[in-house]
Design goal:
Elements: E1 23-27, E2 30-31, E3 35-37, E4 43-44, H1 46-58, E5 62-66, H2 72-77, E6 83-84, H3 92-95, E7 99-100, E8 109-114, E9 124-128, H4 132-140, E10 143-147, H5 150-158, E11 164-168, H6 169-177, E12 184-191, E13 199-200, H7 205-220, H8 223-232
Parallel strand pairs: 1-5, 1-6, 9-10, 9-11
Antiparallel strand pairs: 2-3, 3-4, 6-13, 7-13, 8-11, 8-12
Helix pairs in contact: 1-7
Length: 239
């Protein structure tokens, strides 16, 4: 889950989400299993299924838009889309510039992955730029090496640029499983963030209320837990 640094001023557009017939959902499309682009060139993953169901329950017509992670909040503020649904952790810093729904994914662990279990985690550690993991590494005493995409952080470990990568454990688990022993978890998991929520402009209170009600209904009937288990496995944190 991610933490965008506060680098822009709030430029919220009042009522923007309802000034049009379609609510635009902004995602990264590069953070499986939360969100990715499938072979048909479409947004897929956990958040695609959750987002489509939330729009259905809220009575909204929605479309998907992809955006690079490092500009995902500024482009929400600029009106390029109406909602962020991109594995974004709810944090106090972000809450100063945008608003959040209740979480649709519970607080989960972050973890280190390396090529050897005895690496020095105070060495060079890779993380995706502007994430809660990058902020944690920067404060840990390690040397932070930031990359624009999650795939680049993994590549940095494989090619020796970094001794380890620090990221969401749910993102790293399939990478480790598919590495044939090349990559291993190192150290203890670290709990960060307040869960993943939908980000909105602070002025879009009506839209927030609609999505909050839809999220709660999915929690109440268990359908959200079904999707969490589908994409993250039976041991994933649930509601």
């Amino acid at each position: 889950m991610k933490k965008l640094l506060l680098a822009t001023a709030l430029t919220a557009l009042s009522g923007a989400a309802f000034a049009q017939d379609v609510v635009r959902l902004g995602t990264e499309g590069a953070y499986p299993p939360f969100n990715f682009i499938n072979d048909a060139g479409e947004v897929a993953g956990f958040e695609r299924e959750v987002g489509d169901e939330l729009c259905k329950r809220a009575g909204l017509t929605c479309e998907w838009v992809t955006n690079d992670w490092d500009s995902i909040i500024p482009n929400l503020q600029s009106g390029n889309y109406d909602v962020i649904i991109a594995g974004m952790s709810i944090t106090d810093e972000r809450d100063q510039v945008i608003d959040f729904t209740q979480n649709y994914f519970p607080p989960a662990a972050s973890a280190y992955v390396a090529q050897s279990p005895d690496v020095d985690l105070k060495g060079v550690v890779a993380a995706q730029v502007s994430t809660i993991q990058a902020a944690y590494v920067a404060e840990s005493g390690a040397t932070l090496l930031e990359f624009a995409t999650p795939d680049e952080t993994i590549a940095a470990v494989r090619n020796g640029e970094a001794v380890a990568v620090f990221a969401d454990k749910d993102f790293l688990a399939p990478v480790v499983a598919e590495s044939n022993g090349e990559l291993v978890f190192v150290g203890e998991p670290v709990q960060l963030g307040g869960g993943v929520g939908m980000g909105l402009r602070e002025s879009d209170t009506e839209l927030k209320e609609k999505f909050n009600a839809a999220i709660q209904s999915m929690k109440d009937d268990g359908s959200l837990n079904v999707l969490i288990e589908k994409y993250f496995g039976p041991d994933a944190a649930k509601f």
